[in-house]
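Here is one chain, start to finish.
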Amino acid sequence: MRLPKKSSRRFSKWMLVINGALAWAAVFYAINRGQAEAVAASGLGLIGILYSAYVGIGHADFRKVLEASKTILRGDDEAG
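Its structure:
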């Protein structure tokens, strides 16, 4: 078993940045229009969910690499 190819996660980074920026823009717009109670709380929650999803996917990728390297170090080769 070989180590999996390292993902740059470029798409997910850009999605996080763009959606985070849009969520912050919505929060500031809501505050400016006097709708802070309705929109700001959900916008801040969305920012937290986006970041958590990005970090969670990165954690899963890291666990996959650790599992593959343990297999290589033990000398277990499932493919052969």
